[in-house]
Specification:
It is a single chain. The protein is α/β, with parallel strands linked by helices. It is globular, with a radius of gyration of 23 Å. The strands form 4 sheets. Strands 1, 2, 4, 5, 6 and 7 form a 6-stranded mixed beta sheet that branches. The chain has 3 domains: 88 residues, Ubiquitin-like (UB roll) (Roll), CATH 3.10.20; 94 residues, Elongation Factor Tu (Ef-tu), domain 3 (Beta Barrel), CATH 2.40.30; 129 residues, 3-Layer(aba) Sandwich (Rossmann fold). It is built from 7 helices and 20 strands.
């Protein structure tokens, strides 16, 4: 069958409240993947039937063993073999729309726990169960579920990398749940987690600059976001402003220093808040937003990702908005878990 009309069509996905565009000669799965849809698993060639979908109305064709067939309303077809001759509305099953994730609880093996030199931060590496690759994107977080049922949220420090999950956990000995967590990690072989969560992920904002602003272990989330930006070949100028009380609290500074040598468009700016009289430091001292304003002056062509305490995030964003930052170009999980009243 020859389809002559090359005009892009919109395919509405009723049960996902989402849509994607396709040309009449495009495979649904390939077109949708380019627009952020994801197939959970399967063969991608019409054998496993994982992506079975149903036509509500419109002109949808699919490849069957007998050749090209036209789907009738109410008929099921395989998303990975389908294409359209016009606008259509369908029901999707195991194809996830952009931003859609299935939150899962799982017991992860504790592969390693390492106290980083001269810090109170532990680098913890977990492995998800065999055959269970976690579905998340860089910038999202998980919750560790302690034996007593308490939950602790931690950003995932690595972009998706098979079954591996890296966490950076600051030990706070005066807090009961911190002591319980460290005990569970040091004494157990596995730990229960739930993921993915959070919406502070890389966005297509069209700005020339992107600022990744972190305080303390907020670097964890920025690390994953930057790794993803490097992997995608981002052409923006990328700036990491990492704030800590003292120089030794920049617990993994050698990594962004390495990135700065490797990527021409990446710039690392550490900011220290409190120097001892005998400490030497030739960088910024003070507040993160003050350092950013001193270096750049205006932020009307910038995207900002921020991770840290609510006070830090709101202080940074409020100040930078006064210097031109659009409130549509600033992203942080703080806005969801600690919204202003």
């Amino acid at each position: 069958m020859t389809i002559k009309n090359k005009r892009p069509f919109r395919i509405e996905c009723r049960n996902k409240a989402a849509s994607f565009n396709t040309a009449c000669d495009e495979n649904f799965l390939e077109a949708a993947k380019q627009q952020g849809f994801r197939l959970l698993r399967g063969c991608k060639n019409g054998v496993c039937e994982v992506c079975e979908s149903t036509l509500i109305h419109g002109a949808v064709f699919y490849r069957a063993s007998t050749g090209i067939r036209k789907a009738a309303p109410g008929e099921s077809f395989l998303f990975c073999t389908a294409f359209a001759q016009g606008p259509a509305e369908i029901l999707l099953r195991r194809v996830l729309a952009p931003g859609e994730f299935i939150v899962k609880a799982m017991a992860c093996q504790i592969e390693s726990i390492e106290l980083l030199d001269n810090t109170d931060v532990y680098r913890v590496v977990l492995q998800t169960p065999a055959g269970n690759v976690p579905d998340y994107v860089a910038g999202q977080y998980l919750e560790v579920i302690l034996p007593n049922g308490e939950r602790n949220a931690f950003s995932i420090a690595n972009r998706p990398d098979g079954r591996r999950l890296e966490l950076h956990i600051q030990h706070l000995p005066d807090r009961d749940n911190s002591r319980l967590l460290l005990q569970a990690l040091q004494e157990g072989k596995s730990i229960q987690v739930e993921l993915p969560k959070g919406e502070c992920t890389l966005k297509q904002t069209g700005t020339d600059k992107a600022f990744f602003v972190a305080a303390g272990t907020g670097f964890t989330q920025m690390k994953a976001l930057l790794e993803e930006a490097f992997e995608q070949g981002a052409d923006q100028q990328l700036y990491l402003y990492w704030g800590a009380r003292r120089p030794q609290d920049l617990y993994m500074a050698e990594l962004p220093e390495k990135w700065q040598r490797e990527y021409e468009n990446f710039h690392f700016v550490p900011v220290v808040g409190d120097l001892l009289p005998d400490q030497e430091w030739d960088g910024h001292v003070g507040m993160l937003h003050d350092a950013m304003i001193q270096d750049h002056g205006k932020f009307d062509d910038a995207t900002v990702y921020a991770s840290g305490s609510p006070n830090m995030v709101y202080s940074v964003t409020d100040t930078l908005i006064q210097y031109g930052l659009s409130d549509e170009c600033v992203f942080s999980d703080v806005f969801a878990y600690a919204p202003r009243k």
